[in-house]
Amino acid sequence: MTVNPVLSTSLAAVVAVAVMSAQGQNRPFKPVDLPNGPAKAGFDIARFSSAGNGWFETFYVTQTQPLRDTLTAGKVADDTRLLVTETAGGRLALLTEQMAFHHIAQGSAGGKDWLVSF
Amino acid sequence: MVCNSGTSLVPTVDGRTHHFYHVGIHDALFVMQDAETKTLWNHITGEAVYGPLVGRSIGPISNLLHMTVKQALAMDPATRVAISDQMYFAGGRRFGTVSRGPRAGGSGNGEGARLGPSPDNPNAAMTDRFAATLGKEDLRRPRMDMGLGVWTGTTSRYYAIDRIRARGEAFLDRIDGRTVLIYVEAVSNTPAALFVNARSARREGRGVRLDDGSRVESGVLTDRTGGRQPVERPQQMFTRWYGFSLTFPGCEVFGDEQR
User: Nearest CB to B104: which of A67, A90, A100?
Assistant: First the structure.
């Protein structure tokens, strides 16, 4: 077995994937409520698939906490992977592992809306 | 997700907040829909691609950077974090109360097991379901090749991770007349880019040393005296080739002769 040097993944996370992957087997996709166009040039609606529709939930962020406090409390570790963006309220981190499920997070900070896609 | 691409956008249209969710796949990249108008949106560019808001975009786009907790705190001790109730692991312990699957990621290619191949697997294959949504592919690089995509208003360029490593994991390039450092963050092992004023760069321990004496480590730029300097980054994402090339058709490929 070789370990990919680009991104290492914890064994725990790999196990989690296996567990949740099994849960996802044969789960149907929800139909999509599509408008009647128009389409932007380059977007071919015939190639659009509803794959995954209904599987994931956007993370609507209503509260945040200092990352340092979260580390001190042991809720994250030094090597926990994050996705970090800048908002009007300062830098905001999301857990990569959670975003691999949510795919989208959005909220408001400093009086301005933000959205992260992953 | 599938290609590990992520960006930060502003979910407002005409000053009103719209609410977005995953709705499907196109070009093997996930597509967002907003609840207010049902318009479909490109999650990388923020452009409306199908529906009543075509011609509009949600932005400006900004970077979504990959890093570890340690790096994030080094870069900005005031960083805040948002944690959902979705299950996750940290320090060998499980957190979160909800395990809603499936999730993207993983290391195989089984259909239905997740929504796409993991970014940590360079040998991942794309399932037929995803491949069926692809447009005309750019064959200059392997479909699932990984690298750093950088783009400005006029330039889009792909740096294959293999080519970054072949250049010692740190080198300088020029984009739109500015010098940009392309390097691999040692802690997170992810490629990144930032603008610098230097003529050469080399890996030095966990950081990068520039010829003007400055140093980059954990996303922090310090001058020769150790003083922190402001960091400016071009728009970038760690991505797979198919995702970047289909989003930016005809993009430049660092190291190819046509440059």
Answer: A100
User: Would B26 be classed as within a structural domain?
Assistant: no
Q: Is residue A50 part of a domain?
A: yes
CA nearest B124 in A: which residue?
A: A4
Q: Is A3 within a domain?
A: no
**Domain contains B28:** no
Name residue A32's amino acid.
Answer: V
Give me the residues of A, 20-59, that contact B with CB < 8 A: 20-27, 29, 32-35, 37-40, 42-45, 47-53, 55-59
Q: pTM surpassing 0.95?
A: no
Number of domains in chain A: 1
C-alpha B104/C-alpha B22 separation (Å) is: 12
B234 with B151: CB under 8 angstroms? yes
Interface ipTM: 0.87
Q: Is the pLDDT of residue A94 over 90?
A: yes
Q: How far apart are CA A101 and CA B232, in angstroms?
A: 30
